[in-house]
Structure formats: C-alpha cells, structure tokens
Amino acid sequence: MEAAARRRHPGAAGGPGAQPGASFLQARYIPFFLILFMYFSGCFTPTKAESSMPGAALLLVVPSGLYYWYLVTEGQIFILFIFTSFAMLALVLHQKRKRLFLDSNGLFLFYSFALTLLLVALWVAWLWNDPVLRKKYPGVIYVPEPWAFYTLHVSSQH
C-alpha cells in the first residue's frame, strides 16, 4: 500500500497536491450568486417613477457586463450564471404582477446580467467551429475560457 502511495504523482487525482475539480470550482461561486440574487430581490419599488437609471450608471453597465463575462467564461460557471439569470427574470415577472418595479440598483444588475448573457453567446458563436477548443471543451455546453483562447491563438503569434 505504501509503495503505491509513493509512486503516485503528487498532483494526481486525490493526491496531496491535487487540483480541485470543476464541481468544486463551481460550488465556491454559489454563495456569490446567492448573495447577488438576495440583493436583487430587495431592489423593487412600488412606483414606476423610481424605476429608472441615471445616464452615468448606464455607462457602468458595460464594464460590469465585461467583468461578469470574464467571471462566467474563465471560471466555467455558465450553468450557475444562467440559473441565477433565469431566477432573476422569474422574480421580475412575479413582482411585475404585484405592480412592483426594479429600482436603479436592480436595473443595473439586470442589465449587467443581460449584457453578460449576450457577450457569452457572441463568444461561443465566434469560437463555435474552433477544432482545438472544441476538443478541449467537449460536451453539450461549450464555453471556452478566454485564457485558453489567448494561449492558443494570441500568444503563439508573438
């Protein structure tokens, strides 16, 4: 038994230097998205007049959407992100029936998530036929990491 343990590579699965699996990496983002959703659930107002965003806040939606795009693609947490987005949309539709509207903070988060979803869709569509990335990310849900794209296509040109 000890000989088998000594032969095992320290980074092998289950070894002392093993890398965490994908499910663990996704699980560590669950509190983040849960807190975002809880915050979002408190961003409703009974008056439609308060449901607007200042122009400066609209400008900040772009960097926020880019940040979430990077988080979703590099962290490989698309499933968690899409479930949170659908939960937010369902909450908006439910609150709309109660005549409650998103305030500026809720609109900012909702628009950031919508932009992120658009950016992820464009990213996947752009890299859909890349044979190397397709082999690296097999399966039904194909969301390549930006770092993998960079190391494959950009850094090899320098």
UniProtKB/TrEMBL annotation:
One Gene Ontology term, aspect cellular component: membrane
| Pfam family membership, one | CLN6
Residue ranges crossing the lipid bilayer per the database entry: 29-46, 53-71, 77-94, 106-128
* Biological processes per GO annotation: lysosome organization
Source domain of life is Eukaryota
Keywords attached to this Swiss-Prot or TrEMBL record, sorted alphabetically, are:
Membrane, Transmembrane, Transmembrane helix
Q: What is this protein called?
A: CLN6 transmembrane ER protein
